[in-house]
Amino acid sequence: MRYFQIVVFLSGMICTTLGCTHVAEDNTEDQLSVNMIESGQYSNHPQEGIIEKVISSSAEFRSAWEAVHTGRSPMPEIPEIDFEEQMVILVMLESKNSGGFDIDGFQVRKDTTGLVVEYAEVQPGSNCMTTQAISRPYRLVSFPKTGEDIRFEQQEPIINPCE
């Protein structure tokens, strides 16, 4: 037993000395500041499946805005975006059979290949009470135009424990 305690103690000392308490690199300088235009849980967008769209003109934005708000009356007023300076991202999940779903972990960051839009689907856990309505979470955000290539990365789902 004494031998085991010594091995555990020495292992801990070695880990501490060699840096097992590694702190993750701070990549906040690589993140772009984003402006939330709109976030919602319900959309009747006619396109099925996950939508990951880069919008770079007023005409594209108007079309996307109208699609996101299909069936709403009155249609919400479209925000003004300066597409000389800004671009817009639309991320929308596929239709869900209940509420409790959302998008989180949303960020735009630079890497060696261009810009990466990261997001994760939030799912209700087994203890969650949810609305019994079809939902379709979405996010519309703007950020400074860069001219770099953009790719989307959906992260692992986040389960809301609802405790």
From TrEMBL:
It comes from Gracilimonas mengyeensis. Residues 87-143 form the PrcB C-terminal domain. This is PrcB C-terminal.
